[in-house]
Amino acid sequence: MLKTLVLLGTFALTAATAMAQDWEPLFNGKDLSGWKANTMPEAFTVVDGTIRAHAPAESAHLFYVGDQKEGFVSFKNFILEATVRSEPEANSGIFIHTDMSTRDKALHLAKGYEIQLNSSEKEKRKTGSLYAIVDLDKSPVDESKWFQVRITVQDKHITVHLNDQKVVDYTEEKDAKRPPERAGRLLNENGGAIALQAHDPKSTLYFKDIRIKRLP
Hints:
With about 220 residues, the protein is mostly beta strands. The chain is built from one helix and 13 strands, in the order H-E-E-E-E-E-E-E-E-E-E-E-E-E.
């Protein structure tokens, strides 16, 4: 009996360790190794163990590229977590299933979904919104304090949690149609990049504890 309990305890510990190892850290807290800006690399710096996003002009995006020399790391089904804080009157976002193509002169990304991060009065889509798809008109968090963002993508299903509160639960319709200016706002069957946005010179956001767990 004792031997069985020991074996069960060992199995549980091994399983728990394996689950913990499923998480892949994307930011080492020291430098921008594994990340690449599509433009204005000066928009992203490491400050006190965080990624600081502050663009000299609108707009720049920082892509997770891992150890690849070209392109980006593609993620299809996953749980992505990041801890975020905002300066006042700031706008930013986390992009998923995207790539480096842009749709306008301000270099906004053409493809994928944006999870909105916004402490400004001007922008009416508030933090946690699945931008222009599921929009929140009131922020669920105080952006001046650190808060956790958790984004889960499983096939056509997207959920967004802020501090463990579910704020978005969205399933992309088959043959979903978007307006022309957002034609690429869709999930890619092959997955896509993860990117952080530096929106404009008036916006400053900080990111840390960025990690991802791939799902089947």
